[in-house]
């Protein structure tokens, strides 16, 4: 009886202590060695035993439940530690994916295997306790049940909760980060012995986590064959095969067709993401994002573009000769380095000493017996800072970020005003006609290249990256509309569509690795949006100036031609008086456009550029730099009112009215033109008054635009003209008799 009890305590039943499930074999129910954990306690004392008192029977039944728990925990550990899923390299990926998609196939888990190793440690302590009891009972004559109960009493608070834990893991198929989360929750209990055991299990689970973190944050390699890490590849083949039924070979073929630069960009922007289902709750989202960034940064540093490797090798050779050049306007002088082979560029971007430093941080965490959240977060922040610093060195210093930022300011923000002034003058006659959908872009290339020849020096190494684009605008233009005099036929209700066809002019900027990490397509699209707005504004300002020059030239020509003809002079004088109010309107238009242009170029762009430059000088963190640049672009868009639909629509209407006014005032012979000019004048006054009213509203006064917006309003309303007009005290057009009043001014 003693030996059968001791054997039952380590999971082996016999004639006196039986497993009730053994009696179900005749019904075809058989528990195989690899079956899941049983959820029914089946160890019982045989019912036909009559020589045991009921009190002793109850005590034995209570003791042998420990044997049942032991057997089920040992079964779970054996199944989880089974390495039969490790296959040879000749197994095809398709066969492996078909097995993974089979619901009957047990999915392997490195985290469960780690937990199983911890369970084996705990069960070995239990087995040692049973062995000690056996030795004690054989050597001394002492009460059997009392000795067994006294020796195993502490396991009554350990094995049942562990059994419930394992049962939950099996029932809910918990693995990976979810398993760590479950263990972390179970650690918070009031039983010291149980807490120590679960902490030990959690320690084993964290060993796997730290190994995955080391692979990701030291080498940039994602070691996660079974989808248990909270950093996940977007292109995981197992997920694609099981969930979407796609072919691994198709994915591999697509990736193989991608260039190294494309692969690097895809990795950075889309290749990896945080899988929230596997993120333990005690790891904050901010920390997980830092881990994701650090791994992606290490991948970039360890896998530079071949083109960049070649350029950097040439750069190293030049620096050895002693030629130091300041890149762009950044003020940074490249550090002289010994020329290295192309294969060593990756190691130079991330020195081995830095990689060892990261590895040692993770090793310290791994060797700690308990998980300390603060220490973990501090180490992750330190690793992220190391990765961000070296990525900053790569992008800002080696790739000349500031030079490219200056180029984008020159061309997308119109800082090179002479170039765009020349371009608009060269293309002015072309833009008088609606663009032809098939050749609009080619037509623009001629004035674009002429402006470049006249204003861009050969030393400007960034202009070659700029290209002009004319997106599809969906306008059908008749082939007969080619001569300039016919432009007046489009000054009707449909003129707005044809005239605004040129508003689609856009620039593109060619960016090499690794600057694509900084200048994303989203960033470049914001630059293009601002460029189109500024170009239209400059075009409007130029047309207002050209119209004034044209009208004055015509007026002086008429005066010189008829200066000796008193009759003609008497006729031309009323004509001059008739159009003088329109010259006042043109001046009002030019005043508004000039002040808006000055406000955007000086108060907005230049001030924000200076703020960005100070941030670049002070920051040595790549992510901080990306944030500062986003703030820079957001400030440009918001302070230029592009994010306020009502204001941007009014400004678009004002610029359209200004262009219509210019083209009409140059063709001022007919009375129909006079009425059209009056209509344009009336609309302009309405729009300008609405603009002033909105800009001085309380909603905008409290926003971040307020300091610079007040300057703009002060310039516009320096003599209270706009304020008086907005209040209705002075109206230029309505009522119509107000026109002669302006003639006397």
TrEMBL record:
<dbReference type="GO" id="GO:0051321">
    <property type="term" value="P:meiotic cell cycle"/>
</dbReference>
<keyword id="KW-0206">Cytoskeleton</keyword>
<protein>
    <recommendedName>
        <fullName>Gamma-tubulin complex component</fullName>
    </recommendedName>
</protein>
<feature type="domain" description="Gamma tubulin complex component C-terminal">
    <location>
        <begin position="401"/>
        <end position="722"/>
    </location>
</feature>
<dbReference type="GO" id="GO:0043015">
    <property type="term" value="F:gamma-tubulin binding"/>
</dbReference>
<dbReference type="GO" id="GO:0005874">
    <property type="term" value="C:microtubule"/>
</dbReference>
<dbReference type="GO" id="GO:0000930">
    <property type="term" value="C:gamma-tubulin complex"/>
</dbReference>
<dbReference type="InterPro" id="IPR040457">
    <property type="entry name" value="GCP_C"/>
</dbReference>
<dbReference type="GO" id="GO:0031122">
    <property type="term" value="P:cytoplasmic microtubule organization"/>
</dbReference>
<dbReference type="Pfam" id="PF17681">
    <property type="entry name" value="GCP_N_terminal"/>
</dbReference>
<feature type="domain" description="Gamma tubulin complex component protein N-terminal">
    <location>
        <begin position="2"/>
        <end position="396"/>
    </location>
</feature>
<dbReference type="GO" id="GO:0007020">
    <property type="term" value="P:microtubule nucleation"/>
</dbReference>
<keyword id="KW-0493">Microtubule</keyword>
<dbReference type="InterPro" id="IPR007259">
    <property type="entry name" value="GCP"/>
</dbReference>
<dbReference type="Pfam" id="PF04130">
    <property type="entry name" value="GCP_C_terminal"/>
</dbReference>
<comment type="function">
    <text>Gamma-tubulin complex is necessary for microtubule nucleation at the microtubule organizing centers (MTOCs).</text>
</comment>
<dbReference type="InterPro" id="IPR042241">
    <property type="entry name" value="GCP_C_sf"/>
</dbReference>
<dbReference type="GO" id="GO:0000278">
    <property type="term" value="P:mitotic cell cycle"/>
</dbReference>
<dbReference type="GO" id="GO:0000922">
    <property type="term" value="C:spindle pole"/>
</dbReference>
<keyword id="KW-0963">Cytoplasm</keyword>
<comment type="function">
    <text>Component of the gamma-tubulin ring complex (gTuRC) which mediates microtubule nucleation.</text>
</comment>
<dbReference type="InterPro" id="IPR041470">
    <property type="entry name" value="GCP_N"/>
</dbReference>
<dbReference type="GO" id="GO:0051011">
    <property type="term" value="F:microtubule minus-end binding"/>
</dbReference>
<dbReference type="GO" id="GO:0051225">
    <property type="term" value="P:spindle assembly"/>
</dbReference>
<comment type="similarity">
    <text>Belongs to the TUBGCP family.</text>
</comment>
């Amino acid at each position: 009886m003693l030996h059968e009890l001791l054997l039952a305590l380590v999971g082996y039943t016999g004639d006196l202590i039986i497993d009730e499930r053994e009696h179900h074999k005749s019904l075809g129910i058989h528990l195989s060695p690899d079956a899941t954990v049983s959820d029914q306690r089946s160890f019982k004392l045989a019912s036909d035993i009559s020589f045991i008192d009921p009190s002793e029977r109850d005590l034995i039944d209570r003791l042998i439940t420990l044997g049942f728990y032991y057997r089920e925990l040992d079964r779970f550990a054996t199944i989880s530690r089974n390495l039969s899923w490790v296959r040879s390299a000749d197994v095809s990926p398709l066969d492996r994916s078909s097995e993974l998609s089979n619901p009957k196939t047990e999915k392997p888990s490195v985290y469960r295997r780690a937990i199983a190793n911890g369970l084996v440690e705990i069960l070995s302590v239990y087995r040692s306790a049973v062995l000690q009891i056996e030795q004690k009972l054989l050597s001394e004559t002492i009460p059997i049940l009392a000795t067994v109960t006294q020796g195993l009493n502490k396991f009554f608070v350990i094995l049942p909760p562990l059994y419930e834990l394992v049962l939950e893991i099996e029932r809910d198929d918990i693995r990976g980060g979810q398993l760590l989360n479950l263990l972390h929750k179970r650690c918070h209990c009031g039983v010291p012995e149980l807490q120590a055991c679960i902490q030990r299990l959690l320690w084993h689970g964290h060993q796997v986590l730290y190994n995955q973190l080391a692979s990701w944050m030291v080498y940039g390699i994602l070691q996660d064959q079974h989808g248990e890490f909270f950093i996940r590849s977007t292109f995981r083949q197992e997920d694609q095969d099981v969930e979407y039924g796609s072919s691994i070979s198709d994915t591999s073929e697509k990736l193989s067709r991608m260039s190294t630069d494309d692969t690097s960009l895809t990795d950075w922007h889309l290749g990896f993401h945080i899988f929230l289902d596997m993120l333990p709750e005690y790891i904050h989202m901010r920390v997980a994002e830092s881990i994701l960034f650090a791994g992606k940064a290490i991948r970039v540093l360890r896998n530079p573009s071949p083109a960049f490797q070649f350029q950097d090798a040439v750069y190293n050779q030049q620096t050895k000769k002693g030629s130091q050049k300041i890149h762009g306007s950044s003020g940074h002088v490249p550090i002289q380095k010994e020329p290295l082979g192309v294969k060593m560029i990756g190691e130079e971007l991330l020195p081995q000493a830095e990689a060892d430093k990261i590895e040692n941080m993770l090793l310290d965490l791994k060797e700690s017996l308990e998980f300390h959240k603060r220490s973990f977060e501090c180490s992750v922040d330190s690793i992220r800072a190391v990765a961000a610093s070296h990525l900053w060195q790569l992008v800002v210093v080696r790739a000349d970020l500031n030079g490219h930022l200056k180029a984008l300011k020159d061309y997308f923000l119109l800082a090179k005003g002479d170039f765009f002034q020349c371009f608009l003058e060269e293309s002015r006659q072309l833009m008088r006609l609606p663009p032809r959908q098939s050749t609009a872009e080619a037509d623009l290339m001629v004035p674009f290249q002429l402006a470049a020849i006249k204003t861009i020096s050969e030393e400007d190494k960034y202009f070659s990256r700029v290209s002009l684009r004319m997106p599809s605008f969906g306008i059908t233009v008749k082939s007969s509309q080619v001569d300039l005099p016919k432009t007046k036929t489009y000054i009707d209700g449909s003129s707005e569509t044809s005239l605004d066809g040129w508003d689609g002019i856009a620039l593109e900027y060619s960016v090499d690795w690794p600057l694509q990490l900084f200048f994303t397509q989203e960033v470049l699209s914001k630059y293009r949006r601002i460029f189109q707005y500024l170009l239209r504004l400059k075009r409007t300002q130029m047309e207002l100036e050209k119209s004034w020059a044209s009208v004055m030239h015509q007026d002086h020509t008429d005066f010189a031609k008829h200066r000796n003809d008193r009759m003609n002079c008497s006729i031309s004088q009323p004509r001059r008086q008739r159009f003088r109010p329109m010259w006042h309107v043109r001046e009002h238009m030019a005043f508004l456009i000039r002040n808006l242009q000055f406000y955007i170029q000086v108060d907005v762009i230049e001030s924000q550029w200076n703020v960005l430059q100070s941030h670049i000088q002070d920051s040595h963190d790549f992510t901080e730099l990306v944030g500062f640049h986003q703030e820079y672009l957001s400030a440009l868009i918001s302070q230029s009112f592009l994010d306020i639909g009502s204001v941007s629509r009014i400004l678009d209407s004002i610029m359209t009215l200004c262009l219509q006014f210019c083209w009409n005032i140059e063709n001022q012979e007919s009375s129909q033109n006079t009425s059209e000019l009056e209509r344009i004048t009336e609309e302009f006054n309405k729009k300008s008054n609405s603009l002033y009213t909105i800009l001085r509203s309380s909603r905008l006064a409290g926003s971040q635009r307020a300091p610079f917006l007040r300057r703009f309003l002060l310039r516009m309303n320096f003599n209270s003209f706009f304020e008086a007009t907005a209040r209705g005290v002075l109206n230029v057009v309505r009522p119509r008799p107000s026109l002669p009043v302006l003639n006397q001014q």
